[in-house]
Amino acid sequence: MAAETFFARWSRVKAESPPEPAQALPVAASAETESVPAPTLEQVEQLTSDSDFKPFVARGVDEAIRRAALKKLFADPHFNVMDGLDTYIDDYNKFEPLTPLMVAALNHAKNLIAREFAAEEDDEPKDEDL
Question: Do residues 42 and 23 make contact, with C-beta atoms less than 8 angstroms apart?
């Protein structure tokens, strides 16, 4: 008998096993079962850092109200803490000119490298010498 492929064996075992009973999913409370009014912008203004934000981010809440509540939540200084992972947080658009000492060091290094390349070219045999 030929070796059975993984998918063929999986299909056969799946077909032979009895179906598992479906687990009951928790039913979310709908607006029909509870007559809780939708949050308003006035309620958003009364929020503090200790308030419960769940009603403002629930399904069916107006997008403007949800955004206003999240903006109020993240305006708290607790969320405005640098974590130390912002390595490149500096503003690299600010130009800082090179000092004359740095320019002199760069010119010196450029001259040294140019002399080294010129010395290497003099050491190499030319086609005319061969």
Answer: no
Q: pLDDT value at position 129? A: 56
Distances (CA, A) of 79 to 38, 51, 71, 99: 27, 15, 11, 40
Amino acid 48: pLDDT: 87
Would you report the helix, strand and coil content of the chain in percent, each value rounded to 5? 45, 0, 55
CA angle 125, 128, 129 (to 5 degrees): 50
Q: How far, CA to CA in Å, does 118 sit from each of 63, 85, 102, 112?
A: 70, 46, 24, 10
Amino acid at 87: T
Element (H, E) at 69: helix 63-74
Cβ contact 29:17 at 8 Å? no
Q: Report the pLDDT value the prediction gives residue 106, as an integer from 0 to 100.
A: 96
